């Protein structure tokens, strides 16, 4: 059955009128039965299916269908029928409010007394709805395994399949009236557990783990009941109504409608998977509201079980949130259930959403991706469970964020407060302050099948699609993923490259905000306050650079005149990120004491746009320090070394594209670069041009990351090379020693003392084979380990000195020296 409704496009007309019609009546009360009966008696089906066709009414119930329909020898046309109740129209939209709840009835599911009253007083509040019909023979054809069981004497499986098909057709028909934003799944657990393919999977799992098949089935049923999001239109309406005012008073949401129009067209054929950046707990509310206003069906949002506390957990599940365990361990049954449920949602073309960084960023920039859920998606595509999936990178960027204090505390070793009722109360209270704009940007959608193949995944060619009436999707034969080690490695790398491309897609549409630039300016001057004019002078060449590159941006015009710039800084002062001293001749601005991590959070949301400029500066300085070498070659060597040193903090393209990007940066500094004849002595000449450009970025962009790497490198050098490293304890040590180094002014800013930055630095050291213990029986091996650790620390000290030279070349710091 494929749905339709009177106002929706009708299917192609049948060339032969049916001999008889069976109306499967989905009624919950005598009033609904009367309405449907009257509608049928008045010829509701006659005009569509022919006046000669007698109509038999049958309850939409598996038992009744098994007794009176599945065994029929003729070929009736089966039509599902239901009464759809509508809320009153409010501001041009039919939706529910808390006022409806006060009347003790759900306007989408009114009680029997309310139904009678509505029929008398508000006849526009109900519609008799039909789903697209199917001949009984077509239903048998579309459910071959259930039909085979019918031939063997068991009618129940085929009857349940007809019920599911009818419910799906009616649900789709409803959406032609109420809109796609109310697309919700029904009978999910039942359909998955009735799937012969999934039952065979459970049998294989039972055999593999040596468990009783019935026990494995029961465990799978419990896991499904734990996972499946039971969406409710009532709860969705009320939850949106409750949360929208909280966030509407905090942010002005800005999005691009053109991107949504293109996505809506794609969604008619493919499921969409939205993969947003994750900076706040509010991300899902903001994105959900943007999509709901544009009549997208609700996303199934995949989240961690830490947010499933009462009352948020039960409410969130009824608005589409799927709570997945943080760790599956060796639970093969749970893994099989998650993979099947994931594939089911994609096959049914339900849209998904998850935050593939694994959690909120603590630094403001995009975190390295997690691959778990992408692996399930790739498995569905490889197995031809779904024709394709469109991956949508989404950037959600806040001008200000009211929860930054807690994030900063966690950065310096503070414990994260567990989510619960007290946390929820604090969260709602924190949203009472205006925080400017939030920018929601959608990156170019990616075909999962195309990108996996391009990244080396040995995908199988999908089979030809066969339309199914019962699902309106393609029937495809499951092709198992190869299990040999070589193929598994190709698949693993393809998923990692795909995740990298998604991250690049998010960064590509992340705008530069006013607060990102304001904090970038103030963090770049060491322990010094700036006047309003100095801030404006410092930002002017950076704004010109942004214009030249055509970078996406927020309301940056506010930074071009002193009055608007003063408002930006005052707002940061109210957020306790910037401090203002007014006791002198004019106000001066600096980063609030103890707020460097919060300021860095804003700066880092845009820092990826300036990373190549910073690398170029350091490469040129390194080349100028090595005049005995070919300076151009030395500069490129340094650029590639920096790219490798920062690979766990930023997303870099391959060497060829990176070289092209760096050349483009060079041309912005020196447009005549390609016309130079002497490339062996370019260093000092270009250093002058860098300084003349009006700004330097290396100390503003890279210093905190390099300083954090230095802390990790020095602590590694101080550790016994033969001892196994306790990573948690080591990171705590880095925080403690980092604070001491900061007091000794060996580090330049508190933002360097960050567990997030130390974690990335430790990954880098591990990648350089500096973490694994040496063989205590081999003095030579341990001596080599000590040498390499000390060499790594010295390399970072040299890099730090070059960053200090870049800082000294910055016009704002040269001004300080002149004074």
UniProtKB/TrEMBL annotation:
Keywords associated with the record: Acyltransferase, Membrane, Transferase
Subcellular location: Endomembrane system
Transferase recorded as keyword: yes
Domain Phospholipid/glycerol acyltransferase: 272-399
Membrane topology reported for the UniProt record: Peripheral membrane protein
EC number: 2.3.1.15
Pfam families associated with the record: Acyltransferase, GPAT_C
GO MF, any single term: glycerol-3-phosphate O-acyltransferase activity
Region Disordered, annotated ranges: 1-20
NCBIfam families: PRK03355.1
Family: Belongs to the GPAT/DAPAT family.
Protein name per Swiss-Prot or TrEMBL: Glycerol-3-phosphate 1-O-acyltransferase
Originating organism: Nocardia aurea
